[in-house]
Sequence to fold (165 residues):
Amino acid sequence: MTSVLSAVIVVERTEPGQEPVRSSLNEPQAHCLRVTFQYLDELLGTIEDILDEPESGTAFPRFAPDIPPDQRKAIEDSISAIRSRLLRILEDQRIPGERPVVPASRTIRFTLTAMDIAVEELKPRHMKRFGEVTEAAATELNGITVELHDLITGLDQSLAEREEE
Fold:
């Protein structure tokens, strides 16, 4: 007796001159494979972020750029080869990928909201929890928060305008 969860998905694909390719993964196994591959792709993206950090212009670099150009190229080529193989395996297993559904602009705008909240926490009334805030410090903190709020709001409005177009 076979339950729905243990039902085997058998997919046949024939290409001219080739034997049919069969997948014997059930749906949960196929889902696990795809999700694991998505995680591997995220980790590869993390490696790319590390490699790209020196050129990113980040204000607070975390990594010392100790990878010479030839080794960087080898790493990038390996990342590309791994991603290609992940996609071929999914294709061979006839496991569909997921289409992106979250607009990048929405994610950026949510991130800007988080940034705005973090900046709000720099106001003198919130900074009091770390000790007395002098008048001079309050003036500086208020100026910092206004300036950063303005910059964040400007970027958010720019994205909002593009969404309306």
